[in-house]
Design a protein that fits this description.
- It is built from ten helices and ten strands.
- It is α/β, with parallel strands linked by helices.
- The protein has a single domain, classed as 3-Layer(aba) Sandwich (Rossmann fold), CATH 3.40.50.
- It has a ten-stranded mixed beta sheet, sandwiched between helices.
- The chain binds alpha-D-glucopyranuronic acid (GCU).
- The site of alpha-D-glucopyranuronic acid has 8 residues, from α7.
């Protein structure tokens, strides 16, 4: 038995090493490709003004991304009830109000709820707010003992004390380094976060989370043009927005949607599909997020679709090892956010996410912002590390690994102050 295990480990190590060796990080080995022109319609017409962009080009791009990349939401579903399950005016050493708001959905015999954890600065009547998902539960973003632990499915993680897919007390505060709550509150912003697996557990299963609410009984899977998990998570952010519009203490005209990594892919899609978000931040989002797919550097379309088959719609698989057939690229996803402020951030050591590809997307989205008279990224030369470009399109590459750091938050706050005044 022991020998078999050792043999299998050996085989897996070889296979893993082989797979890694196929990952391209070399600029000289990037396939030749043409960056699709965001200001030219699919049938070749030039877009010269905002009107044509908004009436013709933006809708056709949005439709393409919906049907072929993230997947369409198959219907509508309203919030059934909202309940403030916990509230305190004495949070974070007295400087913030904390609310935990349960958003529930009911349909036939199905129910689902998710809880938004909200901190608001006490000295502001109607606060602007950053909203974003977290990876391991609301209680991981802070040491605050009052934050409720979710009972939704969680990926096992021994070091966080997550076994049998259940979150536990052991992981309280383990991700507080990623959420600069004090800086955010001190700067006069609120922070709202939701555990993403409460909306849709991050696994290749369409029978759980919000998905089944949208299918007739005979159907267990979305159609090839219908949503994967990223679109489901984005949908959840829009439902949070529905709630923010009702909360008298929140300035719903200044909601900044934020996300890291897979959740940074999600924040971009949420910003593209829901124009109520005033600004968008996408941190280290990589393939299927800010990075250009056609460069095929680091993670590629085929890799992401095989490692995470549930993130995108089935139609996206058509482009596995076939990026050149894509009539769009991710800079056009950023362009869908125009003219609203958008911030793309990379990390120097996060090669898997292709920092240069993330930067170039921001650059190639710029002509659309220019149509609106807004400044994007001035040229295709990447800024030095830790030297942000903060225009209506903002970009930085910081030192360090795939992560969210205080440096990142300091930049986001400074930029939000300037953009949302
Ligand atoms: C994996 C995946 C990325 C993703 C990341 C994350 O590395 O390949 O696409 O961004 O997980 O979400 O942490």
């Amino acid at each position: 038995m022991k020998k078999i295990v050792i043999f299998l480990l050996f085989v897996f190590t070889i296979l893993f090493a082989f797979a890694q060796s196929n990952v391209n990080y070399n600029e000289n080995k990037i396939p030749q490709f043409v960056v699709p022109n965001p200001l030219k319609t699919f049938n070749g017409k030039k877009v010269r003004n905002v009107k044509t962009w908004e009436k013709k080009r933006r809708p056709e791009l949005l439709e393409f991304f919906s049907k072929n990349i993230y997947g369409e939401v198959p219907g509508k579903l309203k919030i059934s009830s909202v309940e403030i399950v916990e509230e305190s005016h004495d949070a974070l050493n007295g400087k913030a109000t904390r609310k935990q708001v349960q958003i529930s959905f009911q349909k036939d015999n199905l129910t689902l709820d998710f809880t938004i954890l909200i901190y608001l600065p006490k000295n502001i009547e109607k606060a602007p707010l950053f909203v974003g998902y977290n990876f391991y539960g609301n209680h991981t973003i802070t040491e605050d003992v009052n934050v409720i632990i979710s009972d939704a499915w969680a990926r096992d993680n021994e070091s966080f004390g997550i076994i049998n897919n259940q979150l536990t007390e052991q992981s309280r505060g383990v991700r507080d380094n990623r959420w600069a709550i004090d800086k955010i509150i001190d700067a006069g912003y609120g922070l709202a976060t939701i555990y993403y697996c409460e909306v849709d557990p991050d696994k290749n299963d369409f029978t759980d989370g919000i998905h089944p609410f949208f299918y007739e009984e005979y159907r267990k899977l979305p159609f090839p043009n219908e949503w994967g998990s990223i679109a489901a998570w984005s949908w959840g952010l829009s439902r949070c927005m529905d709630y923010f519009e009702q909360d008298a203490n929140i300035d719903e005209s200044k909601i900044i949607v934020f996300g890291h990594s897979r959740l940074g892919k999600t924040s971009l899609w949420a910003g593209a599909t829901d124009e109520r978000f005033a600004a968008v931040i996408s941190n280290n989002s990589g393939c299927g997020g800010a990075a250009l797919s056609k460069r095929a550097v680091g993670e590629t379309v085929s890799r992401i679709n095989s490692s995470f088959p549930h993130w995108f719609c089935t139609n996206f698989k058509e482009y596995n090892r076939n990026e050149k057939a894509l009539p769009v690229d991710q800079h056009e996803l950023i362009a869908l956010i125009a003219p609203r402020p958008v911030y793309i951030a990379s990390a120097e050591d996060d090669k898997w996410a292709d920092p240069r590809g993330e930067f170039l997307s921001a650059f190639y989205a710029t002509p659309v912002y220019k149509l609106y008279g807004k400044e994007g990224i001035p040229n295709d030369k990447m800024p030095a590390v830790n030297q942000p470009i903060q225009n209506r399109i903002a970009y930085h590459i910081r030192t360090g690994k795939h992560d969210v750091t205080d440096f990142d938050w300091e930049q986001y706050i400074k930029w939000a102050n300037a953009q949302l005044k």
